[in-house]
Fold these 3 entries.
Entry 1:
Amino acid sequence: MWKPIVEILILWFVIYHIMLFFEGTRAIQVLRGIVILLVTFFLFQKLDFEILDWIFRKLFAISVIAILIIFHPEIRQGLARLGQRHLFGTTLREEDLDYILQQIGKGLENLCKNKIGALIVLGKNDPLTAYIESGVFIDAAVSSDLIQNIFTPSSLLHDGGLIIQHGRIIAAGCLFPLTQNQDLSRIYGTRHRAALGLSEETDAVIIIVSEERQDMSLVYRGRFYKDLSREDLLARIKGIIKLKREDA
């Protein structure tokens, strides 16, 4: 009697974490539909509906191939994260976070010195899938060299934004919504307006490097933190990322 209960609990646990894993991606709606189909398929078998059971078996065979083709980027990204400690969560170890911030800081400092503009987004809790899909999928370790190469004027990706999520560079050349705030000073260009626009819609932490003023700014929840030093910028980012509540 206890075996069916254990099996149901295990199945529920697996399905729940798979749905969490794909939460915020375009695959989540299909995944929910598959769960409903599985439940329906189970009921048809129990009720001995032979024709409907046969139809569903054929549909599942076709749907597996279709899902592999349509959601190849999500599957690839998921497999790349399998070996990471934060598979079922987004919390990084302290030393991993420090290393990533050091790499970002080094890259930003060099971009400033070379008068190269940049727009970097650090994902927090809200999904950024729609913005990731607007750019070029990368999925690489965070490094100062890669950040600098992406924003080099000769690069095809330098005009868009770079997104870092789950401790990795996920995509570059991404497009973000421009703020509709009429009070924003005209001295701020497209990067600053895009940063503010994204911060109004998500809880992402956004960094802007101004090529004209050679300074670094931070935007979070619609707030600008201007002309920050490397140390102040990284300290503020770390504080925001480690917040357990959304009242930063």
Entry 2:
Amino acid sequence: MSKKNILRTFCAAALCCGALMVSAAADCAGGAVTTTEVNVRTGAGTGHSIIFTAAKGEDMIVTGEAENGFLPVYINGSFGYMSADYLDVSAVMDVSANGYVNGTEVRMRAGAGTDSEILRVTQFGENVEITGVNGSWYRVKAGGMSGYIRSDYVELGEYSPAPEAGSIGEKVVAFAKQYLGVPYVWAGASPSGFDCSGFVSYVYKSLGYQTNRTAADIYKNGSAVDKSALQPGDAVFFASSSEAIGHVGIYIGGGEFIHASSGAGYVTISGLDESYYSAMYVGARRIAV
């Protein structure tokens, strides 16, 4: 969610010999329009289930880089994947989507650049109507005005405020548990599908805490917490066979944590004392304070 903490710079795209060429930036944002009827799928490939079929001429926001010839998109209020063969991609175009501001005191400007006049200062969770994209900027309507906000400060979809009662950590846990059972999707960072770090960053960001995007980089956020001092809402980290830190979840108390598990295939709850997680535990960070 993407997003965000996440600089979603638009990936330059071009058509060459019928194939869509997209730059290898880690995160990107832009616009696209369907050139024919095309299926929106839950993953990057025809083996994934169909969410719905988009009509010819529908616009959308491209939320990331191409994978297996498919682009991750946000269309008609849903996140999904579409074959790049049936999309015209542009860095500047009109789109229609809803979102909300995912940072504090984010500036809304008259043009798509930091040298443009500041029209107003937005607040976290403020709803915006996205009417277009211009590179890494969204053209939006908010507060009775039209202007531009950088895409990394806008979360696509509807804002879900945190519960009012309880400690900060309890709010993090309560918010995270809403997504139990959501499918695991590689590079997913939205309620339509999460990978481990996409889930953790989405939860924290939705509650106003910015983080990095990957598990290893989230480990640089917040402050270190000893395992014996874990509190609900702390991020817990685990090693993998391929890198020092390859997995992250959120501690919920009672020796358990919630995470997007590739093994289970969805957001689930596991125990820190389970053999794998006990052996691969790296440490914890307190981000929500």
Entry 3:
Amino acid sequence: MKILFLTQLFPYPPVCGGTIRSYNLLRHLGACHDVTLVSFVRKEPTKEEMEAISFLCSEIRTVTIRRSAAANLKFAALSLLSGRPFIILRDRVPAMQSIVDDLAQTGEFDLVYVDHLQMAQYVTGLDSCPKILDEHNVEWKIIERVGENERLSPKGLFALVESRKLRKWELEACESFDCVLTVTENDRRTLAEWNKNIKNIHCVPIGVDFDSFRKVDLRPVSRDIVSIATMSWPPNIDSILYFAREIYPLIKSRVDGVRLVVAGSNPPDEIRRLSKTDGSIEVTGFVEDIYQVANRAAAFIVPLRSGSGLRVKILNAMAMGLPIVSTSVGCEGIGAEDGRHLLVTDGAREFADAVVRLITDFDLRRRLGENGMEFAVRNYSWDSIYRKLDQALEMVGEHREGKRRVPVVSGHPCPDTELTIGDGFRDRGVPK
């Protein structure tokens, strides 16, 4: 089967939630099918990065997208004037549309896989074959929560206006696809409740490559509070600023020798300044070996106040056996149990209490780490998620009129059987 795969983030290296998901699903689809990848890039991929992806794809095309504070202000103003969502305007690049149009005319694709909501605008006129939209997040929910947290500030007011526009655009976009994938059941229910015309919605979570992780050796004497996250994502920035300003001082007043370690790529200046104003805060930026940070952890924190989708950083922390404290937003959709697999709490004082519990109770630390690891292995292996993806693809044909013969979507190895697209996909082996 010929698949056109459009993505907003180049899927290698898989270093954040978005690229981890995109890379692994592309790996599954590319193992048996003819995949053409079209991706935005922030900079030209290295030879190593291109080689890592090229064996999965028959063709790769990239379009450079620029981001800057000045450009964001321009698109925010255009959003207010035009009524179109900010993230859609920001990621509207004529060169990308030109490539998609060219491929649509010549490619004769059997399936279009749209990875991230922002890419949906490029396939509005492409109706000759089934289309799947992979909703990494319910995007309007992220902006809505920013507005609720910021309230009457200029940022909060803009977010509330933006969330309403984005909700309308997002729901209409989802309705136009033959299949929509979400990463949590909560996101699936949200879309279904807000627009009952979106019928074919399936939950396909993010997985964890457990072979890439090893269990940390927790140390009873550790006093380090650790965050490992992509620090260019606005909800992560907000969460660390919130923790450093409102929660961390409460912990410092109760625990001697405590330290806050903030690891993750591309921290902005406002995050870097934390270490300059408080000597007990370390901002590492990108770390080549995350165990340099993880092995020091007494508590792994996820103090998110906004966001949607599924936080892969929690799954990665569980894969390493780290004890976790998260807000309810942070662990939303994962299905882990408070007090058994991690500690879940909201409010600055309550969050501080939970972190202090972990620092001062090594048995609790060890128990949560072991239970969390077992939970993640049982529920988030890629093999189980590939099966869910295949089950979702089975239903795509039911949303198309007419019958067309295409190769079956399969795991490893590829069977020789075919199916009728109007009848859905069926009868495949267990995916690798």
